[in-house]
Amino acid sequence: MNIAAMHLFWLFGIFIIIVSVIGAYCVLVTHNLIRALLGLELIIKAVTLLIIVAGYISGHEALAQSLVITLVVIEAVLVTVAVGIVLGIRSHYNSLDARRIRSLKG
User: Fold this and answer.
1) Per residue in 85-106, pLDDT tens?
2) CA distance 4 to 89
3) Using alpha carbons only, how large is the chain's radius of gyration in Å?
4) The whole model's pTM is what?
5) Which of 36, 52, 48 is nearest to 72 (CA)?
6) How many CB atoms lie within 10 A of CB 63?
7) What distance in Å separates the CA atoms of residue 71 and residue 81, rounded to the nearest whole number?
8) How many domains does the chain have?
């Protein structure tokens, strides 16, 4: 492993950590369901970038590409279903605030 690859890994590693922390903050702190979905998207994008960088560093680019393509397909299905659920909640409760829909317990 050469020095340039290690510098690239640390540069992208810092960016991946920042993006995943921002995504986790969006998911955990906000009460808006759309912002929570955007935070989930940020976390998934950070994982995707981590897989790409790890594949480049380890020399397994083909494996990393196949994993990323699979992750993108799963992400598209997940987001489509989640947006459908959020729109259903929006039409039923006329709000996207998660605190107002906690009455579904039970």
Assistant:
1) 999 988 888 888 888 877 666 5
2) 49
3) 18
4) 0.86
5) 48
6) 13
7) 15
8) 1
How confident is the model over 48-67, as pLDDT tens digits? 999 999 998 888 999 999 99
Residues contacting residue 86 through CB under 8 Å, at least 6 positions apart? 33, 34, 37, 96
CATH number of residue 90's parent domain: 1.10.287.3510
Query: What is the end-to-end Cα distance of the chain in Å, rounded?
Result: 55
With cut-offs at 50, 70 and 90, classify the pLDDT of residue 1: low
Instruction: Tell me if 18 sits within 8 A of 46, measured CB to CB.
Output: no
Interatomic CA distance for residues 76 and 83, integer angstroms: 11
Q: For residue 87, what are the domain limits?
A: 3-104
